[in-house]
Design goal:
The complex is a heterodimer. Chain A is mostly helical. Chain A has helices spanning 3-23, 32-60, 66-71, 82-85, 91-112, 118-146, 150-163, 185-198, 221-236. The longest helix of chain A has 29 residues, at 32-60. Chain B folds into 2 domains: 8-89, 2-Layer Sandwich (GMP Synthetase, Chain A, domain 3), CATH 3.30.300; 104-152, no CATH class. By secondary structure, chain B is an alpha/beta fold. In chain B, strand 5 (125-129) and strand 6 (137-142) form a beta hairpin. The chains are: A mainly alpha, B alpha/beta. Chain A binds chain B through residues 33-34, 36-37, 40-41, 43-48, 50-51, 118, 121-123, 125-130, 133, 136-137, and chain B through 50, 52-56, 83-86, 88, 128-133, 135, 139, 153, 155. Bound molecules: zinc ion. Zinc ion binds at residues 117, 119-120, 122, 142, 144-145, 147 of chain B.
Chain lengths: 242, 155
């Protein structure tokens, strides 16, 4: 499989898996405004998925389209970061996961916008506008909840501690990456230090990182459960139209 | 028999009568998503850019364009999707902006929030949420007339 196909799958699978995770809040978020906000973010991410997986399908040149890639691949074919497949848990955990991903996604798309591959650059340019908005909101929420009540502060610190071992994978780099992802780390770290400071949260000092999501070598148990739900309908009724 | 092809100007006028499916007071041309109209031989080529990448109205918009053009006797139509340059609310027409406000939706402002309440024109407005009922809107409220209103997000 070509490196470019792998890369388009990495980008598309990140937005697909996180988009699905976020959509799990639809109808059950703490307040109506948050419910609507989460559903809108999920929608943006699924829209970006169509662009990236559409590009992957075009590169592959077989009879698979974006839908086939999303709904007819199994866990071992997915190339998303382990971070985005982690379960939602509570609202604070969902927003911490969102912030960590948005902060990386923002830098990543900013770098990809300068690519000389016209399709990659166009998708990045389009997505970056949406992700800038996502990052603004997840930043505000992390600060509000971190520097909130004792209960919300503790929940946000627990979420950060739990998710921290999944941060490093975003910056691991290999031949399939269209740009050097490790070069995004300084800007990410600077933003993290600023936001966590305002949120009165403490960045864990461990450098241990789980890996295997973006290479497909080893996903966490959570992804299989998620795909079982996400893919059940299209697999039960292949090619259904409505 | 030779049939005159409608001019590009005529086609822009027709497109300006196709309403946005989610905010029907403005047209697709007002929204700024029609990027180009041209004849390629006997095929009419219309270039459309999406507002938000996941906006569910995108496929309806394409369908509405097709229906409108077929209704005007266009036989060969090709719709092209263009992602770059990415859509910006700067492309909303002046006519579209004032129609939005009359309809009760505050038009986008570069400051990042509405300059006044679309109902009573008070400038004492507060943000409820960065998101709203469709991808292009956010929820605000007026501290004077106490009415909530939609704000067309500036991107
Ligand atoms: Zn008012």
């Amino acid at each position: 499989m070509s490196n470019l196909f792998e890369f388009a799958c990495r980008m598309g699978d990140n937005s697909l898996v996180l988009g699905h995770r976020v959509s799990e809040w639809c109808g059950v978020a703490p307040v109506l405004e948050e419910d609507i906000a989460l559903a809108n973010i999920a929608l943006d991410l699924i829209g970006q998925t169509q662009l990236w997986l559409g590009l992957a399908a075009e590169i592959e040149g077989s009879d698979r389209d974006a839908d086939a890639l999303a709904f007819r691949r199994d866990v071992w074919d997915f190339r998303n970061l382990l971070l985005v497949e982690q379960p939602n848990r509570d609202f604070g955990h969902t927003m911490m996961r969102q912030f960590l991903f948005d902060a990386w996604h923002f830098e990543m798309l900013g770098a990809l916008k300068g690519s000389d591959h016209t399709q990659i650059s166009a998708i990045a340019e389009k997505s970056l506008k949406e992700v800038t908005y996502h990052l603004e909101r997840s930043t505000d929420t992390v600060i509000a909840l971190g520097d909130g009540t004792e209960e919300s502060h503790n929940r946000m610190q627990n979420a950060l501690d739990r998710l921290w071992p999944y941060v490093g994978e975003m910056f691991l780099n290999d031949d399939c990456d269209h740009i050097d992802t490790s070069s995004l780390r300084p800007a990410f770290d600077a933003r993290l230090a600023d936001v966590l400071g305002q949120a009165t949260l403490v960045q864990p000092d461990s450098t241990f990182t789980h890996k295997g999501g973006k290479t497909g070598a080893r996903h966490t148990e959570a992804l299989g459960h998620m795909l079982a739900v996400m893919q059940s309908l299209p697999r039960a009724y292949p090619d259904a139209k409505w | 028999m030779v049939v005159e092809k409608p001019t590009v100007t005529q086609i822009w006028k027709w497109l300006d009568n196709v309403p946005d499916p989610e905010i029907p007071v403005i047209s697709l041309v007002d929204l700024g998503i029609i990027r180009d109209v041209q004849w390629q031989g006997d095929t009419l080529e219309i270039t459309v850019t999406p507002t938000y990448s996941g906006c569910p109205a995108t496929s309806i918009i394409n369908l509405d364009i097709e229906l409108a053009m077929t209704g005007h006797g266009i036989k060969n139509l090709s719709l092209k999707r263009q992602l770059s340059p990415a859509w910006t609310t700067d492309w909303l027409s002046e006519k579209g902006r004032s129609k939005l406000e009359t309809y009760g939706i505050a038009p986008p402002q570069t400051a990042g929030g509405p300059d006044r309440c679309p109902h009573c024109q008070s400038t004492d407005v507060q943000r409820i949420s960065q998101f709203g009922s469709t991808p292009c809107k956010a929820q605000w409220r007026c501290a004077d007339c106490l009415e909530p209103f939609d704000y067309f997000k500036c991107i």
